[in-house]
Specification:
The structure is a single chain. This protein is mainly alpha-helical. It has one domain. Helix content is 42%, strand content 0%. It is built from two helices and no strands.
Length: 66
Amino acid sequence: MTDADFFNARTEDRYPDVFRLTPTEAGASRLQRQILTQTLDSLPRHALTLGHDVKANTDFLTELLD
């Protein structure tokens, strides 16, 4: 992940800033993004492909979470 993966006030105004990541101060925002990036990068990754069967997808994802 890089800074380009984040929305900011100049590039995106259609989504509310629910995670409070839109910069208010350049330094504070950059630090917040670095912390978030490190946290997300430390999470495990799993690739999967879902089909067009919504019920099968829902059942599969529900089973993964249980």
